Amino acid sequence: MQIRIIKTNDTRPWTQPKARNIGAANARGNTLLFTDIDHVIDKEAIEFGRNFKYEYGRFKRELAVLDANGNLTQDRDVLAEWGIVPTRGLHISCHVLSMFIKADVFNQIEGFREKIGKHPTHDDGNMKRKLNKGNFTKCPDNERPKIYVIPNGRFIGGKDANPYGYFHDLCR
Known about the structure:
Elements: H1 16-26, E1 31-34, E2 39-41, H2 43-50, E3 56-58, E4 60-63, E5 65-66, E6 72-73, H3 76-81, E7 91-92, E8 99-102, H4 103-108, H5 126-133, E9 146-149
Parallel strand pairs: 4-9
Antiparallel strand pairs: 1-8, 2-9, 3-8, 4-7, 5-6
């Protein structure tokens, strides 16, 4: 895998959809992967993307944390050390911006809308509507790969699930 740094002279205000659109415009592959900074993708999900046979698909998302050795874990004792006691399991609802999508489909629906609204870091939900309306082939739920979400305070009420500051706090 080769990583390239893309520099832009675009002077419009920065938004997450804008950054994603710029990345997609500069991508070289047939399948695009979009995720968030607090998501961890394992080898299985990467392999799934390399062999992606659908037009788009989202991930199954689950809570996970880093253990003392820096390894990703869902061990209940380690979660408790972080102050996390899941009451409804480790599953987190689907996220429209964490997905695989074929580059030609992304271009056909003209990417993410770069509307600046109340929450400029988020797409306005338009992506999901465009994909559903376009009648594209979606990855079935039973085949979706897992990604892991490092808690950043959003999923556990008022408790700070990010006590060591490893990941962003933009949503707080």
